[in-house]
Structure formats: structure tokens, C-alpha cells
What does this fold into?
Amino acid sequence: MKLGRLTARSIILRGGSGPSIPRRSLATAAMPTSEPAQIEVKPSSVGALEWTGDLLVLPLHSAPKPDNEEGEEASSSSKPPPLAVLSSAASGLDADPLLSGVVAELVSAAEFSGKAGEHASVRLQKGRKIAVVGLGPKESSSSSDAAAAAGANAKGLGAALAKLAHAEKPVSMAVALPDGFKVGDVAEGFAGGLYVDNRFRTGDNVATPLKLKSLDLLQPSSSSSGESGTVEEVEAALNLVAGVNLCKDLVNAPANVLTPESLAEVGRSLASEHGLACEILEKAEIEALGMGAYLGVSQGSKPGECDPRFIHLTYTPKPTPNNGGGGAQVHKRVALVGKGLTFDSGGYNLKAGAGSMIEMMKFDMGGSAAVLGAAKAVGLLQPRGVEVHFIVAACENMISDRAMRPGDVLTASNGKTIEVINTDAEGRLTLADALVFADNLPGPKMDAVVDIATLTGACIISLGDKYAGVWSSDEGVAAALEKSSKATGEKVWRMPLASAEYKELTKSKIADLTNVGPRGGGAITAALFLQEFTKAPWAHIDIAGPVWDGAKGGATGYGVKLLVDFVAGMGKEESA
It folds into this structure.
């Protein structure tokens, strides 16, 4: 396992540009990688005051909001927020002679309010430090989403610990977990918060590596659930983050480094590392399958490394002792299809002018990054009961004397003809042939086919950059995705397929379909176009908004957690 060594009580997490990402995972010497520090992350039953190390962290909630808060704000907007309230556990620790009220003094002196992510620290005797970290307001346990809120708070605590590790520079750190916080959630937030991409920086621009060598997750002696977190929970969380970080690395990579061929090499590496079946189709093989829509998009690129590469990885669960060591039990078959435009110029309908975002079009393969990140996580987590196909039609959309033109008619691999109205509506053309491929795979029919793509600006207009849009032909698949969204915190919003109202807008007067409808309802007509190429229970996820964090200037890794949870849930349906 590439996370490092797994001992009886610990997981070694490789931080940096992404734990567990191979040094040559992008198949090019032009992509340097940092050599990250090793950080041991482990659950522990040691008491907070018995723990010996550099930095002990106590999480604190902010004070409850007063009932008349609105009136108070109106009368005194400059009034400072109330100080954080010490929990009974924190008060008990603070009353111990070893601390003698240090925590309360720190809260008062730093005017610490407990706002989420806020922190303050003080040095104790013998060079040790104690820090407080804000959790924000405490959620009501009666809330219908209390479990999801607790998970989000725990992940937020983990992210705050990563920031604290940078700020305080300890070699060893421990956090006294509040009751109800799962070690896996905290580890997930911590590992995700460590991500930094140094691959294209030099000299002083390279982020300083952490000094931290260990993080102990100190669990309360008695919890409301009566259960203690395990090393397996931490391992699962770090394996998931490994997939997310791979997704980030791929989306962040510039198009002159991440080409269709180097993306295919990522697929080969994943297959080799995690025992996945691997099929990479090159141009001649793609032509033999009649993938005319996909080939139409790719034909303007420079031959060679920028030729199309069709990536197909397959995860099959391993045999378990329950079935006598025979063939693995597969209850469900799922295909995940990711849009893989490693660069989108727009073609002859060139992205030009302010707001065109042409300089950002390296992220137009965000769907494929989510699918390959999910492949890595699934390969590490080994979910039972589900066979998963990871499918990417990788190519570029470029301008040349070979490029497709507005008005061209393409023939997809299911025989349907498509009039190209706009060459910048290219992603759905590549997805069309990929969806047909998924439908035609040998064996039982797919129980679910989910495509994920940075498909339309219209979806950004509708939902902004925090939500992905979901369209589905199947209520069960849609419900499962919404459940996974709540479980993982990756937000989705169900959108109308509106076939009766808008399907005619996808029709062409000279061919079967057009590749773009009118401006109004553009995200809906894009989904209706895709539906023409699959007969399976299907969902389309448009991640044009949440794929990128403009404020941080980097990829979010969106989609990996959602897809992995969805896949695992499909496997559990029959085996439960």
C-alpha cells in the first residue's frame, strides 16, 4: 500500500503533492514531484494529560448565540464576539494541577471566540505548548442532519490541525477529540489540509515542508456511542484522500504536461499498483469501434502524444473467506465515465475575449480526474459486492487544418448522426461514445452508469461554484447520489431532465441530433443529448462549478468522495 507502512496502531501518511501518488505517475520528466515528509497518524486511548509531545490541541466550540442576537447586532455591530466556552472535558483538564487554569487564561488573553478554524497557543514548561482550536457553534443533537454536521465539523477540525501544524511547527502533535468526533473524519480533514502542489515551483517559491512527524488522535475515555475509533477507519480515510489528491494533481497539471497519452499512463500506473484490469485504446482501435463523435473532437490535435487515448480500467472485488475462496461475489456493476478534455480551445468556435476562461481549460478534464481519483481510492479501499468500470475518452479540442468545423456531421458508435453546431460543445461528443462503450461492455447489463463532466457554463450560472448539477433517468440512482452527497459533503442539486419540454431542442433538421441547443436551458439540453447514448440506469453530473477553487487558485478534488461513496453503497445494497 503506497500510503506507507501500516503497523498495529498507526498509519503513515505521505503529505506533499498527494499521499500515495507515484513519483512518475504523470509519465513525464517535465513534472517534478516533491519528496514529502512522513507523518504518522494514529488513534490513541492515552489521556490528554498523560500524552507527552510538543503540542497538545484542545478544540472548543463558540458560545451559543443569544436569543436576541439580531437586536443586539442592530444596536452594537462593533461588539466583540463572546469568548469560547470550555467544554466539561476541557474544564476538567484545565482544573488539573498540570495546567492550573492555563486554558481559560489563554482563551481570555487571546480573546478566543471559538470561530471555526481560529487558533491560539501558549508555551508551557519544558518547551511544550498547548493550543485551542475553534469548532464554531455546537450543532443541536436533535437536528435531522446532526450526523452529517458532526462529520463536517470533524473534517473541519482536521483541516484546522493541518494549518496549525504549519503555524506552530511541532514535531509531534495530539488533539483531544470531542465526544462524537470520528477519527476517520478528522484524519480525512487533516490529510486533505496537507495538500500542496510544489511541482512547478522552484527556489523560495517551494512551500516549506512540515516538521511534523506524528499526530495522535486522543479519544475520550467514554463516548456517547460507546465505541472507539480504529486504525482501519484512519486507513480508509487516508486512502480516500489519496484519490482526492490524485484528482487535484491531475486537474492542476498544465496541458503541455498532462496530455492524452500521459493521462493514459496514469491509468496504466493505477492498474499496476492496485490490481485493476487495464485497456488503453489508441487511435486505430478507436476508429475500429466507430467512435466518430469522439474522433471528431480529437482530430485537430498534433499527432502523437496528443492523439486520443481511450482509457478503461476495471475493478473486480477480491474473493473473500465467506465464499470459500472462489470467485468474488459481484452484486452490482457500475460504470463511471469521466470527460477527459486535457485542453479545450473551443475549436473553430474559439474561446475568446474576457470571460472565455480559455486559460483555465486545463481543468476541462476534471471529470476524468474524478474518475481516476475514484479508481485509486476504490483500488485501495477494496469495496465488496460491486464491479466498477472507470472510463475516460481522453483528447484535446484544438484548431488546425484537420479540426472539425461547425456544420460537420459526425456518426457516433451507436449509429446516431450529430450535426456540429458549435465546436465548443465538444465534451458531450466524447462522452457520447464513452457511454455507448459502457452500455456495450460484455456481461450483465450495468446497474448504473454515471458520467461526470465539466460540461456547461449554464450549470455554473444556475448553481454557482459550490454545487454540481445532477440529471438522471433513474430515481434509484439519483437518490443514491443524493445520499452520497450528504454523507461526503460534496454538494449536488437534482435538476429536471424535462424531456417532454426540451427534447425537441436537441433535434437536427439534417441529422439525428445537434450538439448544442438554444441558450436557454443549455445544461438541460446537454443532459438530454447524453441520454441518447445510454439505455442503462443513468445519471449525469455537471461539475463545471465546483471543479475549481478560484480563491485558492487550485483544484478542489471534487467528485472523488461522491463517486467512491456511491460505488460502495451500490455494493452494500445486495450484501446487506
In short: The CA atoms of residues 466 and 546 lie 5 Å apart. The mean pLDDT is 89. The two ends are 28 Å apart (CA to CA).
